[in-house]
Design goal:
Mean pLDDT: 81
Helix content: 40-55%
Strand order of the largest sheet: 6-5-4-3-7
Number of helices: 21
Strand content: 5-15%
């Protein structure tokens, strides 16, 4: 536990030594200390060129344990380390082929042809040679492949010719766009401001839309077409646009032939569709999606609980749950339903998502910059008591002060108030307005812009404070 904390904090040497102590008391390495030591070395300045790497990659478990050749972490890291040292040598190619033989699911995740799941959960069972192991490896190690010049290109070149390869059926440009879009969508950024998340996902949307256009041009690209629709739905859900997300998810659900053989994918899309409809208040549509889960896929507790949740909201009994299932599963109590909803809302709130007026959110505050809640916050010392804003840390406070807060803070000398005359400057998209004079009307909280009315034409514009120069009388 201590070693993992030190690794998370970036104290790599201390973490490495801590894991070494673990090995002294656990020679067969039942706790996986050597796996963590490998990450400590790769995260360091020398990375793939660290002298300690060679010794780690050579090591074996104790006699009573399986050899480490079964693990993707060792097999793919050996190949990457050899490539970093020798380039496309016969030995590097041989090591990579061996790694792909053991787990051929890793390359599509490293190449971002598929998206990794960052929320597998602490209790997820990692199965050697399967998707869970590949996903676990890609989450921690893709960055090392990206840092090594040409490594991902080499991986793709070797993988497409491998007998177990699962290459997306689309043009080379389509694969490139798919990789870039998935990389943007599945980037896991800690404490990322909502505005930056929106920009990142918007870029992903544009790339997925191009993939969709390419996939529509040939019937043999139907799987890529379906994947693009699903990912676009996921993108719009991420930026809280359920209406647009539902448009793409509905199109994905029309691909009946593909869904017939992809039961898990079918169920996942139905759940996403239901969530969008429930958010939009279309409870009948949401219940219909749950009914499809029961009829086409099977009796799942998630669907059962979802139906009961909607029945509780509407106060009406539905026919979505088959009668045979109603008799087998006891109905959840109202207290349990409310508790689950509270936990879900608290989770969304802590991540800076969800309805700011919901019950949990209303009782707490969010960081003014990154929008996270449910954590300790520190108020701005210059604000007055009535309009004080708070931050989760010094970094957020500095960023917020430089971008917007110093222009609206009650105690700031840079504050822009209604009625102030300002000159417009630095407008790149509308340079014809540079030098014009206007009056500040108000500050738009949702847009993080000032509404300014030009004195000559009475035209109102939404402008960043950085484009406004206060006219001193």
């Amino acid at each position: 536990m201590l070693g993992s904390f030190l690794l998370y904090e970036g104290k790599l040497k201390e973490a490495f030594d801590c894991f070494q102590e673990c090995l002294a008391n656990d020679l067969p390495d039942n706790l996986g200390a050597r796996h963590k030591q490998l990450l400590c070395v790769l995260e360091g300045k020398k990375g793939l060129h660290d002298d300690r790497l060679k010794g780690l990659l050579r090591g074996k478990f104790g006699d009573d344990q399986l050899k480490d050749e079964i693990f993707s972490l060792w097999n793919y890291t050996r190949a990457l380390a050899k490539y970093a040292k020798e380039g496309k040598s016969d030995k590097a190619n041989s090591l990579l082929t061996f790694a792909m033989d053991k787990n051929p699911i890793v390359p599509p995740l490293l190449l971002c042809w598929e998206g990794v799941k960052n929320d597998m959960g602490m209790n997820t069972l990692i199965s050697i040679g399967c998707h869970t192991e590949a996903n676990d490896y890609a989450i921690d190690n893709r960055k090392f492949w990206m840092k090594c010049d040409g490594a991902l290109e080499w991986l793709e070149e070797e993988y497409v010719n491998h007998p177990k390869a699962n290459v997306p059926k689309i043009t080379k440009l389509g694969r490139k766009l798919l990789s870039e879009a998935n990389s943007l969508l599945y980037t896991d950024v800690v404490n990322e401001p909502i505005s930056k998340t929106t920009k990142r996902i918007t870029k992903a949307i544009k790339k997925f839309e191009r993939v969709l256009i390419i996939a529509e041009s040939d019937e043999s690209f139907s799987l890529a077409y379906f994947d693009a629709l699903e990912k676009l739905g996921c993108c719009y859900r991420t930026i809280n646009n359920p209406q647009k997300a539902l448009t793409y998810l509905s199109r994905a659900l029309e691909c009946k032939t593909l869904l017939r053989n992809e039961k898990d994918k079918y169920k996942e899309i139905l759940y996403q569709s239901e969530s969008c409809k429930e958010e939009l208040g279309d409870y009948d549509g949401a219940l219909q999606d749950f009914k499809t889960v029961f009829d086409k896929i099977g009796p799942f507790s998630t669907a059962y609980e979802g139906v009961k949740r909607i029945e509780s909201k509407t106060g009406k009994k539905s026919t979505a749950i088959p009668s045979r299932l109603e008799q087998k599963i006891p109905a959840a109590s109202q207290e349990a339903i409310e508790k689950n909803e509270t936990i879900a809302e608290a989770t969304r709130y802590a991540l800076g998502k969800g309805d700011p007026n919901a019950s949990v959110a209303a009782k707490q505050e969010r960081c003014f910059h990154c929008n996270r809640g449910g954590i300790r916050l520190f108020p701005c010392s210059q604000c007055d008591d009535e309009s004080a804003v708070a931050y989760c840390g010094e970094d957020c406070q500095k960023k917020s002060w430089n971008t917007i807060h110093k222009y609206i803070c009650a105690g700031s000398q840079h504050r822009l108030e209604a009625g102030y005359e300002v000159a417009l400057d630095g407008l790149e998209k509308s340079p014809q307005y540079n030098g014009k004079v206007g009056k500040v009307i108000r500050y738009s909280t949702s847009k993080e812009r000032f509404v300014v009315e030009l004195i000559e034409t009475n035209k109102q514009m939404l402008l960043k404070p950085q484009n406004l120069i206060l006219m001193i009388e």
